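Teaching soon. Invent one.


***
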Amino acid sequence: MTANDSFDRLDDDDYPAYTIGRAAELLGTTQGFLRAVGEARLITPLRSEGGHRRYSRYQLRIAARARELVDQSTPVEAACRIVILEDQLEEARRINAEYRRTASQSATGD
């Protein structure tokens, strides 16, 4: 792997670039909070060769949403469930829009 390959990965939302300490710092939370959202199965960090947790930007956005809910007095496990349901709803809407677009194109003969 070259240095350019490494830099290209930094643009990848799914690349696990952040250690637990850096992730907690970026989110303004504790490492314990990140462990808790992992235990609630909201996010599953990848592990480095040494076994250390590594988080992607996508995972940090998901954890940040959970943190917003926790900051509003929602219990961690409930916040994680809400975020999971929000994500599932967004995915269902995306699929539905794709089906509609495909059906519309079929109806017009495109």
